[in-house]
Amino acid sequence: QVQLVESGGGLVQAGGSLGLSCLASGRAFSSYSMGWFRQAPGKEREFVAGISGIGDSRSYTDSVKGRFTISRDNAKNTVYLQMNSLKPEDTAVYYCAARIFPATYRYWGQGTQVTVSS
Fold first, then answer.
1. Is pLDDT of 101 > 90?
2. Alpha-carbon distance 77 to 51, whole Å?
3. d(CA 61, CA 112)
4. Nearest one of 2, 36, 32, 4 to 18, comparing CA atoms
5. What does the pLDDT read at residue 33?
6. What integer pLDDT is reported at residue 2 of this predicted model?
């Protein structure tokens, strides 16, 4: 079992940057592939970025490629999402999630709000 707690959300102007963190409790953090998802008001939750257990593979949704970077520090049981060149359409609640690849994401954090003003 993994418990996830996100932090780092907030309000930022368009073009600005924000970094999110997700701290995982439990054992064998490096066994889990981690992902960031987001859900905007009135929209379905969407995948943003993912990273493999040892960090050697990353994936991004097209709309954030070149702007967002996912990383992890297994010694700290933490996964990060660095968001640059933020746009108003990035406004959403951001969730981190964990899975044992290739299963679906099973463990979810409570979410953190990111608001980008124009």
1. no
2. 13
3. 19
4. 36
5. 97
6. 92
